[in-house]
């Protein structure tokens, strides 16, 4: 299967700890790198994960709390020092360009590349990126400020040609694209060769959903139904559920309940509160409800 990996650069929340970096991830789809959120130290973790800056062209910021975007200025500056020439696209709710532009003008007066800002609304799902193999759609969340998650979805791929059968029936090259897309082949003699004899199905398209930060929000279940991997914030344990509600965050058990209701294949939890010296309590609470739960940690790579 083609590469579709999630690299955890940071999985902590707002207060710094010696255990975790603030939130940031890299989605690697066929060696195209997409960054989700960019907390402090994200570029250092990028290096530790042995990823290539040159393959990063799009950054998606869920919301404008510092633990999700304070690392952007450093990242942009580093790319400038490296002599980057390709455009960098930053997708976010309204306000980020106004915040960053004065700092970029001061610290990076001679930019070797363009930074392009793309604003998205946060109340309804919006398609914000598309290429030949992938779409990225926002997932409206509910936090203390406008916030969205992101759904990365592979596009369905054409069937794979069975070379021996195509050669056997002497199928002309100009017919192959049509056959890949499910059509039968009609020979010059008028015989119909069923498509299933000439092709086998491509791997089913995969989907990854990222949901952080948000209060427990059952309304997202429909949009993330059946995804291959769900990252959901699990800032608090159940004993701190009142605090989760006050701060518009989710408990590990609530995240697991969302995963179960959506019928996802795997759950990855993160965005841990600094109050927990050991996150196994969060893993245990989530796993009781949704057994196939993973605990995020820095430099972890999960294949979708």
UniProtKB/TrEMBL annotation:
<keyword id="KW-0819">tRNA processing</keyword>
<dbReference type="GO" id="GO:0008270">
    <property type="term" value="F:zinc ion binding"/>
</dbReference>
<keyword id="KW-0255">Endonuclease</keyword>
<dbReference type="InterPro" id="IPR013471">
    <property type="entry name" value="RNase_Z/BN"/>
</dbReference>
<keyword id="KW-0862">Zinc</keyword>
<feature type="binding site">
    <location>
        <position position="65"/>
    </location>
    <ligand>
        <name>Zn(2+) 1</name>
    </ligand>
</feature>
<feature type="binding site">
    <location>
        <position position="213"/>
    </location>
    <ligand>
        <name>Zn(2+) 1</name>
    </ligand>
</feature>
<comment type="function">
    <text>Zinc phosphodiesterase, which displays some tRNA 3'-processing endonuclease activity. Probably involved in tRNA maturation, by removing a 3'-trailer from precursor tRNA.</text>
</comment>
<dbReference type="InterPro" id="IPR036866">
    <property type="entry name" value="RibonucZ/Hydroxyglut_hydro"/>
</dbReference>
<feature type="binding site">
    <location>
        <position position="67"/>
    </location>
    <ligand>
        <name>Zn(2+) 2</name>
    </ligand>
</feature>
<keyword id="KW-0479">Metal-binding</keyword>
<keyword id="KW-0540">Nuclease</keyword>
<keyword id="KW-0378">Hydrolase</keyword>
<feature type="binding site">
    <location>
        <position position="143"/>
    </location>
    <ligand>
        <name>Zn(2+) 1</name>
    </ligand>
</feature>
<dbReference type="Pfam" id="PF23023">
    <property type="entry name" value="Anti-Pycsar_Apyc1"/>
</dbReference>
<feature type="binding site">
    <location>
        <position position="271"/>
    </location>
    <ligand>
        <name>Zn(2+) 2</name>
    </ligand>
</feature>
<comment type="subunit">
    <text>Homodimer.</text>
</comment>
<dbReference type="GO" id="GO:0042781">
    <property type="term" value="F:3'-tRNA processing endoribonuclease activity"/>
</dbReference>
<protein>
    <recommendedName>
        <fullName>Ribonuclease Z</fullName>
        <ecNumber>3.1.26.11</ecNumber>
    </recommendedName>
</protein>
<feature type="binding site">
    <location>
        <position position="213"/>
    </location>
    <ligand>
        <name>Zn(2+) 2</name>
    </ligand>
</feature>
<feature type="active site" description="Proton acceptor">
    <location>
        <position position="67"/>
    </location>
</feature>
<feature type="binding site">
    <location>
        <position position="63"/>
    </location>
    <ligand>
        <name>Zn(2+) 1</name>
    </ligand>
</feature>
<comment type="similarity">
    <text>Belongs to the RNase Z family.</text>
</comment>
<feature type="binding site">
    <location>
        <position position="68"/>
    </location>
    <ligand>
        <name>Zn(2+) 2</name>
    </ligand>
</feature>
